[in-house]
Design goal:
Blueprint (H helix, E strand, L loop, with lengths): L5 E5 L3 H9 L3 H8 L7 H10 L3 E7 L4 E9 L5 E8 L9 H16 L4 E7 L3 H9 L3 E12 L2 E11 H10 L10 H24 L3
Parallel strand pairs: 4-5
Antiparallel strand pairs: 1-2, 2-3, 3-4, 5-7, 6-7
Length: 209
């Protein structure tokens, strides 16, 4: 899936090493996982094999891998939790993470028939909080003292987007919508086929079939 600035690409085994490298930064590690842990590369590989989270890489359209996004099903079918990060702090605030998040939302709603997507993030994560507020997510609640960092507890916020809210938003903002097929051409083809089908029916009717 390709956006204006980034593409979502299959997650490769070598990408685990990139995540491990990004996690060497205390700030990136904390924003990525909500904790600061000492984990070896082998331990990280094993953890990622065992959990049910799915990953895709985030690559700039110039070809550089800069992060990942993830999702896993929660509770009931069609409900997913989304996570991810842009690994290099020097390119934060440039819109890469926003577009990667939008693309994975498109993927889950548009191709996996998702019903609800949720996000859980610490209130200290100001960039993610700002992004969620701008993109019509609904705040469901505050998780009190959810994270422990810098010697004290921090609240987290849980937000979600439902399927109908997603489609309503993108009907009003079609420029943000991801489609494999050109909607205009698709409608034209459907109309041509409808006329062809009606003509065929009339031919059979005239033959008394």
């Amino acid at each position: 899936m390709k956006g204006l600035m980034v593409s979502l690409v299959p997650f490769e085994e070598d990408d685990v090493e990139l995540i491990y490298k990004w996690r060497q930064s205390d700030l990136t590690s904390t924003l990525m996982s909500g904790s600061l842990d000492f984990v070896s590369l082998n331990e990280m590989k094993e953890q990622m094999k065992q959990d049910k989270t799915r990953y895709v890489g985030v690559k700039t359209n110039a070809g550089r891998k800069i992060g990942f996004v993830s999702w896993h099903e929660v509770k009931t079918q069609g409900n997913y939790q989304i996570g991810g990060t842009i690994g290099d702090p020097s390119i934060w605030d440039e819109g890469y993470g926003v577009e990667a998040t939008k693309l994975i939302m498109d993927y889950l709603f548009h191709f996996k028939n998702a019903h609800r997507l949720q996000f859980i993030t610490g209130l200290y994560n100001t960039r993610t909080i700002s992004m969620l507020m701008k993109h019509s997510t609904q705040i469901e609640g505050i998780l009190r003292d959810y994270y422990f960092l810098d010697g004290k507890y921090h609240d987290a916020v849980i937000c979600s987007v439902l399927r109908d809210e997603y489609y309503e938003y993108y009907e009003e903002n079609p420029e943000f919508y991801y489609n494999i097929f050109d909607p205009k051409k698709l409608e034209e083809t459907k109309e041509k086929f409808r006329r062809y089908y009606e003509n065929q029916r009339s031919l059979f009717s005239n033959l008394g079939v």
